[in-house]
């Protein structure tokens, strides 16, 4: 059974509970962008060399692997080449998830 139609930014209650995880990341990123009113100005990742992204792909990759323990669905799709662009909630993960502290090795 598929997901019921819902308004952008209106995420399920279960996705709002607790810390950000691989399971709820896509919903939480959507809600974050909705609340920031990014509209068409989201930070994004790009595999198109003619239109470079505005988000830090390496920082996000470290966030997903180190902090969340793996890639959420949308990032897996981007990495596989199924998506050329991927909107991100912020340019860097620490602006999105206050529980994430980037290692000094990568700063």
Description:
The protein is mainly α and about 110 residues long. It has a domain at about 45-100. Helix content is about 35%, strand content about 5%. The chain is built from four helices and two strands. The chain has a two-stranded antiparallel ribbon. It is globular.
Low-confidence stretches: none
SSE run:
HHEHHE
Beta-strand level of the residues, as a percent range? 5-15%
Distance N to C terminus: 44 Å
* Mean pLDDT level: 91
Helix content range:
25-40%
Strand runs, count: 2
Tell me the radius of gyration: 14 Å
- Secondary-structure-based class equals mainly alpha
Strands side by side in the biggest sheet: 1-2
Sketch the major β-sheet.
Answer: 2 strands, antiparallel
Number of helical elements:
4
Inertia-based shape:
globular
Write the SSE topology.
Layout: H1 13-16, H2 25-36, E1 44-46, H3 57-67, H4 73-80, E2 85-87
Antiparallel strand pairs: 1-2
Provide keyphrases for this structure.
107 residues; two-stranded antiparallel ribbon; mainly alpha; 4 helices
Short account of what is shown:
By secondary structure, the chain is mainly alpha-helical. It is 33% helix and 6% strand. The chain has helices at residues 13-16, 25-36, 57-67, 73-80, and strands at 44-46, 85-87.
